[in-house]
């Protein structure tokens, strides 16, 4: 059902990105899945790079949406079936922003809104959205997630 919803939104899940450092992409403990930070990467290439400012807010939102799509790809790899997602518990969103940029929530909303659209009430989550001085591979955004899943 969830994967049909994703297809109806014309989203194709990519192969989940591999870690760029000394960590694993996800950890399951109990009925929680902790997914490491995802950047807007596809086929080994970062799609959105550079500092976020008021001038490129829409591009930054596309970057955050791509991070969410990579989070979905990691969920699918770990759970096998996205219908096992019981709840999106929390997102932590990081924005590679100019010092004068203050619209971090508007950037990360693109990821939050996608999860609301796909999962409905199960997609409602707690969240943090913050600006940072830089991100790995000069990515515009990075988002990690905590997911509750069912057996």
TrEMBL record:
Residue ranges of domain Endoribonuclease L-PSP/chorismate mutase-like in the record: 10-143
Species for this entry: Candidatus Nitrosomarinus catalinensis
Source organism, top-level taxon: Archaea
The protein's name in its UniProt record: RutC family protein
PANTHER family assigned: ENDORIBONUCLEASE L-PSP_CHORISMATE MUTASE-LIKE DOMAIN-CONTAINING PROTEIN (PTHR43760:SF1), ENDORIBONUCLEASE-RELATED (PTHR43760)
Pfam families membership: YjgF_endoribonc
């Amino acid at each position: 059902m969830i994967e049909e919803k994703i297809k109806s939104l014309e989203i194709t899940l990519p192969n989940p990105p591999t870690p760029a450092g000394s960590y694993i992409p996800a950890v399951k403990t109990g009925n929680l899945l902790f997914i490491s930070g995802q950047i807007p990467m596809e086929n080994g290439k970062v799609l959105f790079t550079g500092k976020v400012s008021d001038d490129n807010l829409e591009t930054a939102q596309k970057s955050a949406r791509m991070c969410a799509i990579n989070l979905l790809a990691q969920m699918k790899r770990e759970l096998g079936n996205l219908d096992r997602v019981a709840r999106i518990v929390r997102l932590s969103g990081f924005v590679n922003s100019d010092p004068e940029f203050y619209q971090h929530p508007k950037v990360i909303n693109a990821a939050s809104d996608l999860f609301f659209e796909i999962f409905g009430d199960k997609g409602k989550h707690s969240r943090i959205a913050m600006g940072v001085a830089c991100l790995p591979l000069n990515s515009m955004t990075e988002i990690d997630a905590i997911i509750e899943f069912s057996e």
